[in-house]
Amino acid sequence: MTKKILAYIDHFHGKAQPSSWESLGLAAVITKDLGGETAALILGEGVNELADTAFQYGADQVLLADSPILKDFRPEPLADMVAQAVKDYQPDLVIFPTTSRGRTLAGMAAVDLDTGVMVDVIGLDWAGGEISTTRPIYGGKLLAKLTCSTSPQIITLRTRAFDKPEPDSSRSGSVTALEVGLNGAGVATSITSHQDKGGGVSLSDANVIVSGGRGVALNPALEPPADLDEEAAEVWKAEQGFALVQGLADVLGAAVGASRAAVDAKYIEYDHQVGQTGKVVSPDLYIACGISGAIQHLAGMRSSKVIVAINKDSDAPIFNFARFGLVGDMHAILPPLTSALKEYLAG
């Protein structure tokens, strides 16, 4: 029996998340092996160019809904459109990237379709008509094998757990326009404005991440301004420490991450948090500076291909998971390390 897979393309105003192409690429590999068809689901306004790109990354068909109602990420109309597309296309499997938007829509669509969701998948096997998925549990200490007894089966893929395919500009396919029978009056949420923070490398898609923890503020050589109280002085020290982290990240073209402890202490914004309650990342290189390695943090980064730990506590748990470890004060180590890497990469 021919297999049909539908891959949701997560994007912001027409700019796709790279993890969407990972999902579409996996779908194309499966249908090629088993025989079948891969379709990409694109919802938004002015997103026709995304359809052309979807063909390059493996789609045989694109289901496209273009409407002003779908311009911004509002879960209610988008989830309705996902459910409608699934009912019309009748796929065996629906794949979402594990982004905040992807997880939200996967869950809401599953409710509408009366089916289940297997989340944060890092492995997939389709044999004998049954889909079996693998996902990490207990902070990544164990791997669980899951199946879903309902149909269609919905999964979300962990970012960078599967390879993004090389685009093939020679590929093409058919575009099916979906009817948008929605109006703004029935939507509970509205978007009033967007604020672009600008700059920086996305944590979710970064090949290299340099993260800081509580240790960024523990520099005894720094003397904060006299007019600061104790809490403000600690934050001031942390800012100087994160400047070192940022400097190394800039040299490596990396994203800046942080532990929950650093975020809770107001050293850096939540957008940078890596961990169970932050972003789950899988970069090629993860450099942990002044991070002890709490279970919550390890759950978000232990699948990194190479982990480098810099910590002055030789007994810090992070060293149990690091490929390379430097025991010492990050404030003394990062400046010469950054300088050496800058010189090496320049020449």
Write the topology of this structure:
Blueprint: E1 3-8, E2 11-12, E3 15-16, H1 18-34, E4 36-44, H2 48-56, E5 61-66, H3 75-89, E6 93-97, H4 100-113, E7 117-121, E8 123-127, E9 130-137, E10 142-147, E11 153-157, E12 174-177, E13 208-212, H5 230-252, E14 255-258, H6 260-264, E15 285-289, H7 295-301, E16 306-311, E17 324-327, H8 330-346
Parallel strand pairs: 1-4, 1-6, 4-5, 5-12, 6-11, 7-11, 13-14, 13-15, 15-16, 16-17
Antiparallel strand pairs: 2-3, 8-9, 9-10
Helix pairs in contact: 3-4, 5-8
Concise overview:
The protein is α/β, with parallel strands linked by helices and 347 residues long. The chain has helices at residues 18-34, 48-56, 75-89, 100-113, 230-252, 260-264, 295-301, 330-346, and strands spanning 3-8, 11-12, 15-16, 36-44, 61-66, 93-97, 117-121, 123-127, 130-137, 142-147, 153-157, 174-177, 208-212, 255-258, 285-289, 306-311, 324-327. The strands form four sheets. It has a seven-stranded parallel β-sheet, with helices on both faces. A five-stranded parallel β-sheet has the order 14-13-15-16-17. Strands 8-9-10 form a three-stranded antiparallel β-sheet, with no helix packed on it.
